Amino acid sequence: MAFALTPEREQQVDDVLTRYPERRAALLPVLWLCQRQNGWISPDVVGYVAERLELSTSIVKGVVTFYTMFFDEPVGENVVWVCRTLSCDLRGGKAIQERLESKLGCTAGHTSSDGKFTLLKAECLAACGQAPMVQINDYYFENLDLELLDRIIDAHAVKGGEAAAAEFSTFATFRAPTGGDGGSRGSVSSAPPPPSPEAVRLASQPPPPADEKGDES
Amino acid sequence: MSAPTKPLLTSRFGIDESWKLANAERAGAYRIARQALTSRKPADLKNEVKNANIRGRGGAGFPAGVKWGFLNKKEGEEIYLVINADESEPGTFKDRSIMDLDPHRLIEGAIISCFAIDAHVAYIYVRGELAFSIGRLEQAIADARQAGYLGERPFGIDHAIEVYVHSGAGAYICGEETALLNSLEGRRGEPRLKPPFPAVKGAFGMPTIVNNVETIASVPDIVEMGGDAWSSLSRLPLDGGIRIYGVSGHVKNPGLFEAPVGITMRELIEDYAGGMLGDRPLKAVIPGGSSTPVLDPRRKVDAPAEAHPLHKWHGQSEIDVPMGVDTYRALGTMLGTCCAIVMDDTVNMVEACRNLMRFYKHESCGQCTPCREGTGWLVDVLDNLCEGRGKVEDVELLVDISNNMMGNTICAFADGTAMPMLGMVQKFRDEFMEAATRGVPEGVRHDESVRAMVEGRA
Ligand SMILES: Cc1cc2nc3c(=O)[nH]c(=O)nc-3n(C[C@H](O)[C@H](O)[C@H](O)COP(=O)(O)O)c2cc1C
Ligand code: FES
C-alpha cells in the first residue's frame, strides 16, 4: 500500500518547503516527518518522498543510508541507544550496555523478542558530563546507575515511552554552585523530573571547596 | 583558586524556566538586539566582533571577526548564516546547554549577526539526537517571531530575518562545515573540497558564514560591552573573552563552567570540577574533544628559548599552561571545543585509544581512501595490541598509518584522527610497548574506578 502522510504532516511539509531556496533541502526534514509517522523508512516511504520532492528514489535511498538515525528496517516500539564513547565508558558505559543486554534479552544491534525494544550502540551523544547515559526514542536519560536504568526500562515496558520520559528523562539544567556537592550522584535516581537538578551542573564560578571529599568513590 | 567572575554567557541559566521568552526578557534578552538593529550600523557591529578577538568555539579556533571579513557579496547574491549545533566531537557537551537553557540568547545572537553580515536567513543545524533541544529552539523561535523580533520587520526595521532549525540525522562528519552544508541541502553529509570556502560559496552556492552555537551566543555580550572590553576579560592576548569549559570523566563534579579564556587545565580540574574522583592520581587529559592530542601531567614544557611562545611556562607541567587556541597549539595539542576528558591512573591508554579510534572508524564518511582505510587499520592494530596478538612493530605501524593519513584528505577528519593517535603513542609509548608484548591485562576497564558506583555498591 502506498504511503501517505497525515493531513497535518502534509501541512508541515508545505511549511518546510518555504524555508529553503531549493526543494531538495527539505529532504531530511521530510524524512523525519515520515519516520515519526511510520516508525521507519520503508520502500513505500522512499517512493513517497521521492515523488513529493521530485527526486529519484536512488537519491533518497542514498541519503537514508548515510545517516544512522534513519532506519531502513523496522525497529522495536522503543529504540535504546547506549553511548559507548570514551567519557561514558570511563563512567561505566560498558556496565550499562551489559545490563541492557541481559534485561532485554538481546545484544546490541537487535530487537527484544517481544518487539518492545531495539538496542543500539551509539557514539558520543553530547552528554558526556552526565555519563553514563542512554537515549531512548527522543529523550536522554543521564547520570545512570544500574538501579535507575532498571526503573527506566521497566517504566518504558509498562507505561510506554512518553510516560517514562516524563518521569525520568533529563535535559540540560542549571545547578547553582553549592558547597559539598562532590558526591551528589547518588541522589539522581530520586530527582523529580523534569527538570532534574543533576542533569548538568553548570557553575559560573568555581564551587567552594567540597566539605566532604571523595565521598563518591 | 581562580577568582570568580560574573557570569555572562550563562547568566540566565539559573533563572526559573529560563527558556521562556517572558522570563528571558525580564533578565535582559533582546534588549541588545533591539538597540543594535535600531541604532547601530552593521559595519560597526562587525567591528565589535573583530575587536572582541573571539576565536571560533567549534574547534578550529578561527577568529570570527576575520571570517566575517571574508564576505564580499556580489550582485544577486544572498548571504546565509549557518549555526553549527552538530556538537558531536566526543567529550563535547556545551552547546546543548545553551539551546536548552537559553535558546533566546542564541536567537538574539543570530539576529544581531544576520544584521551585521547582511544575511536574512539563519539556519541552525542541530544534531538529530537532540530532539528535545530542537523542540525548545523551535518554540523559542516561534515566540520571538510572534513578539516581532523575527520576520519581515524585526524591531520595526527594514531588514527581514528568519531563523530556521534544521535537524541532522546522526553523523559526526556533519559537524564539518562543508559536510554540514551538504546535509543542509538534502545530500549525504560528505565534505566538499575547499576552496571555495563557505564565505565565498556555501549554502545553496551563496556566500555563507558558518559559526558554532557558542560563538553566535557570545555576540550579544560582545555588542553590549564593546569588543575591546569583552576581549579583555580573557587572560590571553588575541584570544578574547570568556567561554564555556566542560569536564567529563574521572572528576568529582563533571559539568560545564563559564570562565575567562586562559585558565589552566589544573585549575579547571581542581577548582572547577572538584578534583579527581576518589582523589586518585590524574593520569592523562584529552583537552578539547577527542581530536585534540592528550596531555600528560608528568610532562614538562620544554621551551628554554626566550622567543618560544611558552617560555614563561618552561619547566612547568603541561597542565599549567593557560588554555588558549595559540598556547595549546604551541604545546603541540589543540584547544578544540574546550571540553576535557579526564582519566585517572586506572585507565589503560591503549584501551582508551582503541575506544576513540573505533569512533573514528565508525564515523569516517568513506570518501577519501587514506581516511576510510586508515581508521579501519588503526582499529585492527589496536585490537591486536589489546587482545595480546600484537607485535612490537605494531607500535611503529600505528605511527606510520597516522602519518599517511595526515594532510591527504578532503577534510580535517583524518588529521583529527591521526594527531591524537600520534600524541597517545608519543606520550604513553611504554604502555603501547607493554601491550605489544603482553596485551592489555585481563580485567582492565576504563571504568575500574567507578564500577562500584554504577553497580550501586558504593
Ligand atoms: C570532523 C569535524 C567535525 C566538526 N564538528 C563540529 C561540530 O560538531 N560543531 C562545530 O561547531 N564545529 C565543528 N567542526 C568545525 C567546523 O568545521 C567549523 O570550523 C566551525 O563550525 C566554525 O565555527 P566557529 O568558527 O564559530 O568555531 C568540525 C570540524 C571537523 C573537521
Ligand atoms: S561520551 Fe557518551 S555522551 Fe559523550
Give the oligomeric state of the chains in this entry, treating copies of one chain as homo and distinct chains as hetero: heterodimer
Gap from first CA to last CA of chain B: 30 Å
Q: Using the CA coordinates, give the radius of gyration of chain B.
A: 22 Å
**SS content category of chain A:** alpha+beta
User: Helical amount among residues of chain B, as a percent range?
Assistant: 25-40%
Question: Biggest sheet of chain A, strands in spatial order?
Answer: 2-3-1-4-5
Binned strand content of chain A: 5-15%
How many helices of chain B?
Answer: 19
* Coarse morphology of chain A: elongated
Task: Sketch the topology of chain B as an H/E string, one letter per element.
Answer: HHHHEHHEHEHEHHHEEHEHEHHHHHH
Strand order of the largest sheet of chain B: 3-2-1-4
TL;DR of this structure?
The complex is a heterodimer of chains A (217) and B (458). Chain A is 38% helix and 10% strand. Chain A is an alpha+beta fold and 217 residues long.
Question: What are the salient characteristics of this protein?
Answer:
heterodimer; A: 217 residues; alpha+beta; five-stranded mixed sheet; elongated; disordered C terminus; B: 458 residues; alpha/beta; four-stranded mixed sheet; 19 helices; binds flavin mononucleotide; binds FE2/S2 (inorganic) cluster
Description:
Chain A is α+β, with helices and mostly antiparallel strands. Chain A has helices at 7-17, 27-38, 43-52, 57-66, 86-90, 93-104, 146-159, 161-168, and strands at residues 78-83, 110-111, 117-122, 134-136, 139-141, 202-203. In chain A, strand 4 (134-136) and strand 5 (139-141) form a beta hairpin. In chain A, helix 1 packs antiparallel against helix 2 (27-38). The longest helix of chain A is centred in the C-terminal third of the chain and has 14 residues, at 146-159. The termini of chain A are far apart. Residues 176-217 of chain A have low confidence and may be disordered. Chain B is 40% helix and 11% strand. Chain B has a four-stranded parallel β-sheet, sandwiched between helices. Chain B has a four-stranded mixed β-sheet with strand order 6-5-8-7, covered by helices on one side. In chain B, helix 3 crosses helix 6 (103-117), helix 14 packs antiparallel against helix 15 and helix 15 packs antiparallel against helix 16 (393-405). Chain B is globular and about 70 Å long. Chain B starts with 20 loop residues before the first helix and ends with a helix. Strand 6 (202-203) of chain A pairs parallel with strand 6 (255-260) of chain B. The structure holds flavin mononucleotide and FE2/S2 (inorganic) cluster.
